[in-house]
Write a structure and sequence with these properties.
537 residues, alpha+beta, 22 helices, single chain
């Protein structure tokens, strides 16, 4: 019997919590595009995820697998690929249908066990129009799904090492902007009575709040986001009025209990209870992370407010005008066709661009917001792979965050250096993705010298395979642009021994002309604290 539809708070997924991993899962699934989905193909897909360490069941795994996965955190890829024998052992050892002590679940249209686990992993991808699948039918990728899959490359070295590289970072934003501009809550894949497009409801409410002369044009408060997530329809005016009433009564600091009372009893009618932390923290965090991936929102007031990225005002206007009045679909196939069709005009609208001097000036403004101690702390989080608690930085993907914080650290300690980041930015100067392929990450001018700064979160063999040779190419191009004496600073959480040998070889083979200075994050922090110059020569 089909589950009865009901009103719910918006939560996109609990299976894959980190949105940075979506592109990895979709990349692996792309290998099976066009294949008939059955239990054998499900097994192959899951074992592909085991092979690179993207997905790691833990109940019954061989010691050899523990050793391969043990050197990396669960949120990372394994250092070495699992063998066919090892992936089979992991698959059999964690099958809920074979072991009573492993709790299984069942999704509609899928058998309990690995089939249902597969559906929970990829259901959001289907809801967002990236891929369509159904047992007994071909797996179908959409154009936006291909965009997302093309943002990453996962390969294996001759020594069995796992190598992951971001190759088209701009495509991720394209895919998610297209998807969230059209994604309806009351779609055939998810049985909900809530009837709106969350992104459009957010954008409309922000515009109404910003147009209100009583407020300071900074968008919606993070504490007000739960009202939007529980909201039953697409009436932005009524939601704006309720937020205005909330502000009149409690200002910008309503207690969590006040927010929960409005969400549960007023909006939902009190028929169901929710954990307080979920309402005021977990649900909003999940939502803001997803919306940030579109490139359409910015943070104000140290992360206390969510606003429109005014670099993208033309896209916001087009999205609201084009997708607000949406048709509802009765079948999954019809809805997927709608979601998977690409709006070429949306992709053609260009964001407001900044000159390199403007980007440098925006970065300098952030040195007034983040103290050196804060920058050190946040870089240390990246070095140790621990989570940021900063209300703004925690929503920026770690590779982009490292580029931003490294640029900020240099400017903070060496203010005479002109620091020009090459990552795309929102209207506040925060990165919306990493620097594009084919260019260096950060350009620094310390007259008369120039320094290219390259950063990576990659470690181990991935770092060696994917970073040093591109860095040398970027440095050669950088020297042609600036001066022959230009050098490169390379920053990573750790510097792998093979990377160091490659760097030494680059210098030796160029007779000392191509100089790359590698630093671990902590060592680079120490250098900046005592250095008078970035350039060494």
């Amino acid at each position: 019997m089909a589950k009865k539809a009901e009103y719910k708070p918006l939560l996109y997924t609990t299976t894959i919590r980190n949105p940075e991993r979506y592109k990895d899962f979709i990349f692996l699934l792309k290998k099976f595009d066009g294949q008939i989905l059955n239990s054998e193909v499900v097994e192959k897909i899951e074992r592909e995820a085991f092979k690179c360490g993207l997905y790691r069941p833990i109940k019954r795994i061989p010691m050899s697998v523990k050793e391969k996965w043990g050197s990396r955190r669960n949120s990372e890829f394994g250092e070495f690929a699992l063998t066919e024998k090892e992936t089979k052992a992991v698959y059999n050892g964690n099958d809920p249908n074979l072991h009573d002590d492993i709790k299984g679940h069942k999704e509609a249209g899928f058998e309990q066990g690995w089939e249902s686990r597969f559906d929970t992993q990829f259901k959001l991808m289907k809801v967002l129009g990236f891929v369509y699948y159904k047992m007994g039918e071909p797996i179908q990728f959409s154009e936006t799904g291909n965009f997302l899959a093309s943002t990453v490359s996962i390969t294996y070295g001759e020594d069995g090492s796992v190598n992951r590289q971001i190759v088209n970072p701009q495509n991720e934003q394209i895919a998610f902007m297209q998807a969230f501009a059209k994604q309806q809550r009351c779609n055939p894949f998810i049985r909900e009575l809530n009837d709106n497009i969350p992104l459009i409801l957010l954008l409309k409410v922000i515009r109404l709040l910003n147009a209100d002369p009583e407020y300071n044009d900074c968008g919606i408060s993070y504490k007000e986001i739960p009202l939007l997530l529980f909201w039953p329809d697409n009436n932005a005016i009524t939601l704006y009025s309720r937020i205005k009433q909330l502000r009149n009564e409690y200002g910008y600091n309503p207690t969590p209990e006040v927010i929960a009372e409005i969400c549960i009893n007023e909006i939902l009618g009190g028929f169901k209870e929710f954990k307080l932390k979920s309402i005021v923290s977990e649900y909003p965090d999940d939502f803001v992370r997803k919306m940030r991936m579109t490139g359409l929102i910015s943070f104000r007031g140290g992360g206390r407010f969510i606003d429109i990225n005014h670099n993208e005002d033309d896209k916001v206007e087009y999205i609201i005008n084009t997708f607000s009045n949406y048709k509802k679909y009765d079948t999954e196939v019809e809805y997927f066709k709608y979601m998977s069709s690409v709006d070429k005009h949306l992709f053609d609208i260009k964001a407001v661009g900044y000159t390199k001097n403007e980007a440098a000036n925006k970065l300098a403004e952030w040195t007034k917001i983040y103290s050196w101690d804060t920058i050190k702390t946040e870089l240390s989080h990246l070095s140790k792979k621990t989570a940021s608690k900063d209300d703004t930085l925690k929503f920026i993907a770690t590779p982009s965050r490292l580029e931003f914080l490294t640029a900020l650290a240099i400017k903070s300690k060496l203010p005479h250096v002109e620091v020009i980041p090459n990552y795309p930015i929102d209207d506040t100067g925060l990165p919306t993705s990493t620097a594009g392929g084919g260019i260096g990450d950060i350009e620094c001018i310390e007259s008369p010298n120039a320094i290219l700064v390259e950063v990576t979160m990659a470690q181990g063999r991935t770092q060696t395979m994917m970073e040093v040779w591109p860095i040398e190419r970027h440095l050669i191009e950088f020297k042609e642009k600036y001066t022959e004496g230009s050098e490169c600073v390379f920053v990573a959480p750790t510097i792998f021994s093979d990377s160091q040998r490659q760097i030494d070889f680059v210098r030796f083979s160029s007779q000392g002309k191509n100089r790359i200075r590698p630093y671990e994050i902590d060592t680079f922090i120490e250098y900046l604290e005592t250095a008078n110059a970035l350039y060494i020569g």
